[in-house]
Design goal:
With 135 residues, this protein is mostly helical. The protein has 2 domains: 1-37; 51-134. The protein is 82% helix and 6% strand. Strands 1-2 form a two-stranded antiparallel ribbon. A hairpin with a 2-residue loop joins strand 1 (39-42) and strand 2 (45-48). Helix 1 (5-17) runs antiparallel to helix 2 (23-34). The longest helix is centred in the C-terminal third of the chain and has 86 residues, at 49-134. The termini are far apart.
Length: 135
Amino acid sequence: MKSSKKEERLIILNTLRDGKITVDESIKLLNAIDGCHEGFEFGGSNVNVEEKFEKFTSSLDSFAKEVGEKAKTTYKDLEPKLKSGTKTVIEKTMSVLGDINKSLEESLENMKKAEEEEEKCNENCVENCEEHKED
């Protein structure tokens, strides 16, 4: 089965992307498909594909470095804010946990008091019942 020029170009570009061939090899293969030599006519002027590709990759490298530097700067700017925010969250969490602990302790204290009062009441009831039996 014969593949189209478009499919062949995609195969070459994917192979280049995957790092299986070099830029020079890909240019030679693309030129072979199109029947071109080192340069080709584009809009009436001679364009060297390799030269254009080198300029493009150089621009891309510069762009990547610039983005990397901006990412570093952004991280350095955000790091103290993130640490401060994390510290605040931890402090608030500890405060809430302290409040919960205090509330639980108060509830336990109230339950103990209620049990003690109920026990006294039961004792009084037993005493009153015994007094009535004697009468």
